[in-house]
Design a protein that fits this description.
single chain; alpha/beta; Aspartate Aminotransferase, domain 1; four-stranded mixed sheet; 20 helices; 14% strand; EC 2.3.1.50; pyridoxal phosphate; Aminotransferase_I/II_large; serine C-palmitoyltransferase; PyrdxlP-dep_Trfase_small
Length: 640
């Protein structure tokens, strides 16, 4: 493949050539129809398109250029994500734009509020379109004018730029269903057309969300054996053998004593946090924690105090205050103090300062709960998340929470910790007795993808799972020669019918994916900075926010990126997900992207950013050609 444009052009031909009756997921993933993921072989000289005469095997699909996962054999485009302890942990630095940008943003909101509330006022007086904002037949309005103002006056006007309908696998490229409107976005109409676009907006970090390959083969085999419902082979407590296998594998993957899994990631936080704390307990929460954490704390009845985002000075000051003062009015000691943070923050792309938090934990003796929804699988040399990235002993943290919807290409969430705590959560957590169990296909995807990251060891070669620790900079750090960690997955732990391809079983494919994700993330982040943009987040974060500031620029940015050749699908975020002054486009890199894909995104951002006046970052600037040519140097220069 020479360019991303020629590649997507070829995929578009494959889309139009597809057989209408072929299913999205065949009964055997080794049989590949001429569908949206048809295999393409391109001649570098004339970019000719040739279709294979015989369907390739699932192993051959991986090594061929196709729509789900980009082919990249250049070992230079690899990187290892780990913390360099010769340098301090990077603080969260907010770069401010010029004053005229802030002034224009303020004025945009002033104009929006002035005309928006003016239309609401006169509309309520003289028209019938606003009856839902007024009491009606003795009933109170469902929403106040203020609560629905943002959705009616801003989001509705850019509706074609949010919630874009897509179909197919959220891999390297994705098919967007075309829409049109004639009434200011009040009613979007599907035209019936489809556009193959470069996907830089999905949480498919390691690219395991594939319709074909070793993991898909395991999922299909689980459907044959158990069906698609939760009523598979049942054991005591409503669990199947796959549930037991998945929970044991999660605990071993994380290096914890025990783990439990839940069928929904959001519910993992919102239903299990109330089982951890209650009235008389204190929860200390980062101000940018996810809504699921906030909801769980609210339901628990515990007191909650927040500290400034990732600010360790603010956290320590708060700890001293709450410990010395105790509970309000009575000043009795708190029954429990629980600190909740996220490993990787989804809107900011910032990484928790885990070494410093572990030091504070040893000093002030609180419980620590880390939400790794976005960091697990995506960070660390072994894909074990923030503990792996900082080389910190996982059992120095009381509870590790995460989801399977990002790096593992599945659904649901987990909580891992000591066996005592996990057993208590099984009894007290609302998700235990009331929620539905995971379906066998989802469990099979979890087991297959997680085992491929760990690597499957024959029973005779199982390693000791004992973990050893040492002290380094007053924090708990794993020894480089720690025995049995990161642990492999013994073949005896996997279902006997699950036969992973050699590249998955030995872990080589997963290591390649992890290193490619690290390179892509670091390259996109550094490339945008060199082009002059203001970005947030850690350099290794697969989430790269590009600041737009002015709310009127959100729709323009999305439409211009969608009009690029090839079209690029991006996600925008603003209030209430972020502060009103920091509207942004949020890029999500994946191991499925090639270096040429990141080049395409950077070239599009360079031109669109110049048109929209978005380049307000400080520091040395490079031209787009120099950024693309010196990508490897740009990525690895941060290590020196």
């Amino acid at each position: 493949m020479t360019t991303t444009t020629s590649y997507l052009h070829s995929v578009h031909h494959a889309d139009t050539f597809s057989i209408a009756s072929s299913p999205a997921l065949s009964l055997s993933s080794s049989v590949t129809a001429y569908s949206e993921d048809a295999i393409m072989n391109e001649d570098d000289e004339n970019n000719s398109l040739a279709y294979p005469r015989t369907p390739p095997t699932s192993e051959q699909v991986f090594t061929t250029v196709h729509a789900e996962f980009g082919h990249c054999t250049n070992e230079a485009y690899r990187c290892i994500s780990k913390h360099d302890y010769t340098r301090p942990v990077q603080e969260h630095i907010i770069e401010e734009p010029p004053y005229y940008i802030l002034l224009a943003t303020y004025m945009s909101y002033v104009i929006l509020y002035f005309f928006g509330y003016g239309r609401d006022f006169f509309g309520i007086l003289f028209t019938s379109h606003f009856t839902h904002l007024l009491p009606h037949n003795g009933y109170a309005p469902l929403k106040s004018s203020f609560d629905s103002f943002y959705s009616r006056r801003l989001r509705l006007r850019i509706l074609d730029c949010v919630s874009q309908p897509v179909t197919g696998v959220p891999g390297r490229s994705i098919i967007v269903l075309d829409r049109s409107f004639t009434d200011n976005d009040h009613a979007l109409i599907h035209t019936g057309g489809k556009t193959r676009s470069l996907n830089i907006s999905s949480y498919n970090y390691l690219g395991f969300a594939q319709a074909r390959g070793g993991c898909a083969d395991a999922v299909e085999e689980s459907i044959r054996r158990y069906g698609i419902s939760t009523c598979g082979t049942r054991l005591e407590g409503g669990s199947s053998e796959l549930h037991v296998t998945a929970e044991a594998l999660v605990a071993r993957f994380l290096g914890m004593e025990d783990a439990l899994i839940s069928s929904m990631g959001f519910a993992t936080n919102s239903t299990f946090i109330p089982a951890l704390v209650r009235k008389g307990s204190l929860v200390i929460s980062d101000e940018l924690n996810h809504n699921s954490i906030r909801l769980g704390v609210r339901h628990s009845g515990a007191e909650v105090r927040m500290f400034m985002h990732n600010d360790m000075s603010s956290l320590e000051s708060l700890l001293r205050e709450v410990i010395s003062q105790g509970q309000p009015k009575t000043h009795r000691p708190w029954k429990t103090i629980l600190l909740i943070v996220e490993g990787l923050y989804s809107m900011e792309g910032t990484l928790v300062n885990l070494p410093r938090i572990v030091e504070l934990k040893q000093k002030y003796k609180f419980y620590l709960y880390v939400d790794e929804a976005h960091s697990i699988g995506a960070l660390g040399p072994h894909g074990r998340g923030v503990t792996d990235y900082f080389n910190i002993h996982p059992r120095s943290i009381d509870l590790l929470m995460g989801t399977f919807t990002k790096s593992f290409g599945a659904a649901g969430g987990y909580i891992a910790g000591s066996k005592t705590i996990i057993d208590a959560l099984r009894l007290r957590g609302h998700s235990g007795p009331y929620a539905e169990a995971m379906t066998p296909p989802v469990l099979a995807q979890i087991v297959a993808s997680m085992a491929s990251i760990m690597g499957v060891a024959p029973t005779s070669q199982q390693t000791n799972s004992r973990l050893s620790i040492s002290r380094d900079n007053s924090s708990v750090v794993l020894k480089e020669n720690a025995v049995g960690f990161p642990a492999t997955a013994p073949a005896s732990m996997l279902p006997t019918w699950m036969n992973l391809p050699p590249a998955l079983a030995d872990g080589s494919e997963a290591r390649m994916r992890i290193s490619r994700l690290a390179f892509n993330s670091r390259y996109l982040h550094a490339g945008l900075k060199k082009l002059g943009f203001i970005t947030y987040g850690h350099p290794f974060s697969p989430i790269v926010p590009l600041l737009l500031f002015n709310p009127g620029k959100m729709c323009t940015f999305v439409r211009l990126m969608r009009a690029w050749s090839p079209p690029i699908v991006v996600v925008i975020a603003s209030y209430p997900a972020t502060s009103s002054m920091t509207s942004r486009a949020r890029f999500c890199t994946s191991a499925a992207h090639t270096k040429e894909d990141i080049d395409t995104v950077l070239r599009a951002c360079d031109e669109v950013g110049g048109i929209m006046d978005l380049k307000h970052g400080s520091g040395e600037r490079w031209g787009i050609d120099e950024v693309c040519e010196r990508a490897v140097e740009l990525v690895h220069s941060h290590f020196s």
